[in-house]
Design brief:
The complex is a heterodimer.
Chain A: H1 6-28, H2 33-68, H3 75-78, H4 92-123, H5 129-141, H6 146-158, H7 168-192, H8 196-204, H9 209-238, H10 241-245, H11 266-274, H12 279-310
Chain B: H1 2-11, H2 16-25, E1 51-62, E2 65-76, E3 80-84, H3 91-98, E4 108-116, E5 119-120, H4 128-134, E6 135-138, H5 149-160, H6 166-176, H7 180-183, H8 196-209, E7 214-218, H9 226-239, E8 244-248, H10 252-258, E9 261-269, E10 276-285, H11 286-291, H12 296-302
Parallel strand pairs in B: 2-10, 3-8, 3-9, 6-7, 7-8
Antiparallel strand pairs in B: 1-2, 1-4, 4-5, 9-10
Helix pairs in contact in B: 2-4, 5-6, 5-8, 6-8
The chains are: A mainly alpha, B alpha/beta.
The structure holds adenosine-5'-triphosphate (ATP) and magnesium ion.
């Protein structure tokens, strides 16, 4: 059953109370210039933080548009890469490779992540040491650098025991392992946020624990779970390093297949173009960034739309 | 009256889920199965009434701390039985042990024997899920599911596999809960858009949609205004024609108004004065408890001198 974890909530509550109190006091009190200056400074600080985040994003998008605009055409999507004719070269195999890898990642992380979260929240007896060990491990895994997962993928997935070879499937498994902790943590958070009274109400009607989880808890937690999946997928799309290790080659001209060797993905392809000195390849790389942004945007909009359909309010 | 009676007899076939429990715990043959619940006596002196629950020396503890100690009482068929007593005396604990909701608290342990129509509901082969199908529960705080009004009511029948036209089942349950006229035009709206009193009646509708035999109610009106409370009390008196009801309440007038039997529990110090637990002080006809209680502590409590 869901236990309420007090610390984050109380900290947040305290922050909210402090914020509410200080704003009330600033309205009512002639509490001296010091306070008012402090408030101004704090507000300025918040605005600065927000401005930096937005400027960074805007600068990148504007740069990519200016730099990549000469190459924005259907060629970019339909053509394969070419070093001989960079002015018509495109990202077709890379886009397909990315879609294969991301598709595989989603197919793996949703059932595994939700399954693990359901086990930890609804079934695991927290007084048992092995369950606490699993929890601790998941927390720590979320902080392991991605290159380590690349090595793991190379050693265990590309080579024996899984022996998949350097194929998109191996990349998908590797990236899935990398982002799984994020999904598990987010899904646990979402499941824990479902009020225990919902579970009690369902069980009191004679529903089994499984029916309660499947038909009450998971639908109610769906929007939170999807948020976790969105974050994980956004990270997975951009990963290049572990994919390079598990065999995403930087230059592939033919369409990939899920279990066939020789694939590339958008970030690895962009990396390949960007490190070439010639001007044409720089332009191509910038255009690739735009494709990647568009892909992320499309996938996220779909996920957000899906999440809003499941949005719950208590 | 005769009309009512024939209706009674033809109405419910033997309660299948209840029979499951009996078979599972192997007591089926010990009980007189020729007596159907419809024919159970529900009026007259207590010793002649049919028993729904028989509690014998029931104690409940949470991880070694005893919350309820040594309760023995009979709860009668198609009666409203009220549990009253000061906060912390174990009313909710006792109530939740009647349909095995206490199983959800891993540290909770029930001792003694708790028979439902003669069958031990804590018997080794009894599935708590089956118990809860027959013995439903309404909680203190209305807890509708975050779904439409229709789906709230339909959830129980769907999961427990009750056959029949779902629209009819939903309408019937909402009618019996006195909610149909208020919600019939907005069955697809989210249940969270209803008032608290409506939500609580929805929870009652949800509970009767699975056709239980007993309804347990834990302070069902404590969050409601007097008008909603009165509606739910009327509803209880109607439901009593078909179900046995056990209700926990802090409202003396409510207990006096609706219940047939009243049990008074109180927190007692153990002999060595080290720990405290709830004990059953007095259990009798409501009229007797409220006019001529046998124990001075009961009198003090209901007259507002303690607790
Ligand atoms: N889940 C639990 N874990 C441990 N102890 C519990 C739990 N639930 C109740 N208790 C303890 O059991 C005792 C009886 O509690 P219970 O909730 O049954 O009282 P109550 O009579 O319903 O009180 P109230 O009128 O305030 O609802 C209390 O001492 C309480 O601390
Ligand atoms: Mg209580």
């Amino acid at each position: 059953m869901a236990t309420d974890e007090k610390p984050p909530r109380t900290a947040r509550t305290r922050l909210a109370v402090a914020g509410a109190r200080s704003s009330t006091e600033s309205v009512f009190g002639a509490r001296g210039r010091g306070d008012r200056l402090g408030n101004r400074f704090f507000l300025a600080f918040l605005l600065l933080g927000m401005a930096m985040a937005i400027t960074g994003l805007a600068a990148m998008i504007i740069w990519a548009i200016i730099e990549g605009s000469p190459r924005l055409s259907m060629d970019l999507i339909t053509n394969g890469p070419s070093t001989l004719a960079p002015e018509t070269a495109g990202y077709r195999p890379a886009i397909l490779g990315s879609i294969y890898v991301i598709g595989g990642v989603i197919a793996l992380i949703v059932p595994l992540g939700v399954g693990a979260a359901v086990y930890l929240e609804e079934f695991a007896d927290k007084t048992r040491w092995w369950n606490r060990l699993i929890e601790l491990n998941i927390q720590n895994l979320a902080g392991v650098p991605s290159i380590v997962f690349g090595i793991l993928g190379l050693a265990f997935i590309v080579r024996s025991p899984l022996s998949l070879g350097a194929v998109p499937a191996a990349g998908a498994v590797t990236i899935a392992l990398l982002v799984l902790p994020t999904v598990i943590i987010a899904a646990r958070e979402a499941i824990r946020a479902v009020p225990p009274s919902i579970r009690e109400g369902s069980l009191a009607l004679g529903a089994t624990q499984w029916q309660t989880i499947y038909r009450q808890v998971l639908p109610a937690a769906m929007s939170g779970i999807l948020t976790g999946v969105i974050l994980a997928v956004a990270r997975a799309i951009g990963e290049a390093a572990p994919l390079l290790l598990v065999g995403a080659v930087t230059f592939v001209t033919s369409d990939p297949s899920f279990f066939g060797p020789g694939f590339t993905t958008l970030p690895t392809q962009i990396f390949d173009w960007a490190r070439r000195p010639q001007e044409e390849f720089q332009v191509l790389a910038a255009a690739g960034v735009l494709i990647m942004l568009a892909l992320v945007l499309v996938m996220n909009s779909f996920a957000v739309w899906l999440r809003n359909r499941f949005e719950q309010k208590w | 009256m005769t009309n009512n009676l024939t209706q009674e007899i033809t109405r419910t076939p033997p309660r299948s889920a209840g029979d499951d429990i009996k078979e599972a715990s192997g007591v089926y043959d010990q009980t007189d199965i020729s007596v159907r619940p419809e024919e159970f006596r529900q009026r007259g002196p207590a010793e002649h009434r049919e028993k729904t629950f028989e509690l014998r020396n029931v104690s409940v503890s949470y991880g070694g701390n005893r919350a309820v100690h040594d309760v023995s009482m009979d709860i009668f068929h198609k009666n409203i039985t009220a549990l009253i007593g000061p906060s912390g005396c174990g009313k909710s604990t006792l109530l939740r042990s009647l349909n095995r909701m206490n199983d959800l608290v891993p540290s909770a342990k029930v001792e003694g024997s708790l028979l439902y129509h003669g069958a031990d509901i804590y018997g080794p082969k009894v599935d708590p899920v089956q118990v809860r199908k027959v013995i439903g529960m309404v909680f203190q705080k209305p807890n509708p599911f975050p779904k439409s009004i229709y789906d709230n009511v339909a959830f129980g029948p769907r999961t427990t596999g009750i056959k029949g036209d779902m629209d009819d089942i939903v309408e019937e349950a909402l009618r019996r809960a006195g909610l149909w006229d208020e919600v019939k035009d907005r069955l697809d709206d989210n249940a969270y858009g209803m008032s608290g009193g409506q939500q609580q009646r929805l929870c009652i509708a949800r509970c009767i949609a699975v056709e239980p035999d007993v309804i347990l109610m834990d302070e069902p009106c404590s969050a409601l205004d007097p008008i909603s409370t009165a509606r739910i009390e009327d509803l209880m008196l109607e439901l009593k024609e078909r179900y046995s009801i056990v209700i926990v309440t802090h409202n003396m007038q409510q207990a006096a108004r609706v219940s047939d039997m009243t049990a008074f529990l109180m927190v007692e110090l153990t002999a060595d004065e080290k720990s405290r637990w709830g004990e059953l002080i007095e259990y009798d006809d409501t009229s007797k408890i409220f006019t001529n209680p046998g124990d001075s502590r009961t009198e003090d409590y209901i007259s507002g001198r303690v607790g």
